[in-house]
Write a structure and sequence with these properties.
Distance between the termini: 75 Å
Number of helices: 7
Number of strands: 0
Order of helices and strands: HHHHHHH
Strand content: under 5%
Structural class: mainly alpha
């Protein structure tokens, strides 16, 4: 678990002010996450209404927003706009964007949730490391599947050759 800040090292007046500021900032960060999810929802809704080819010009003109930024908002909404907000409200936007990327497996999201629920801080570096580990495990599993398929194919080919030899010997009268 992440240790809290030691306010005891500060003068009392500064400790009181900084604790109050921390609480206000935490509230605003939670609202930021709520706003990101709501922006994603609204972007998806209007994109569905606009004629084809008009969404990108619209977000550029109205918000000076890039497609990537819009994709970040909509990805967060698609992945996390399902009532799990209390858990995700502790994440910074950059972490939400990393977790909501299409390349992020559910196992990485589950790991981030588990870590956050224990009170530990989740970082972008954590998410990146978990994604790399998941990708490596997936690649190893795929390689194992391919090796297994190759072995099965070799076994089938050997069985076919054996069957052909047995059939030849039967037709030549060598087997009973």
């Amino acid at each position: 678990m992440q240790a809290g800040f030691d306010y005891e090292v500060l003068p009392v007046e500064i400790a009181v002010k900084s604790r109050a500021a921390a609480e206000r900032i935490k509230l605003r960060l939670k609202r930021t996450v709520e706003d990101i999810i709501e922006i994603g929802r609204e972007l998806m809704a209007i994109k569905a209404e606009l004629p084809h080819g008009q969404f990108l010009p619209w977000i550029a003109a109205e918000f000076e927003m890039s497609r990537q930024t819009a994709d970040n908002f909509t990805s967060v909404y698609e992945r996390f706009g399902n009532g799990k907000l209390p858990i995700f409200s502790s994440f910074k936007p950059s972490i939400l964007y990393a977790l909501s990327a299409p390349s992020t497996p559910e196992s990485v999201i589950d790991r981030a949730i588990e870590k956050a629920e224990t009170g530990d801080k989740v970082t972008v570096a954590d998410v990146k490391q978990w994604k790399e580990a998941a990708q490596a495990a997936s690649q190893r599993a795929e390689e194992f599947r391919q090796e297994s398929n190759e072995r099965r194919k070799t076994i089938r080919e050997l069985e076919t050759q054996i069957d052909l030899r047995i059939d030849r010997r039967r037709t030549q009268g060598f087997c009973g």
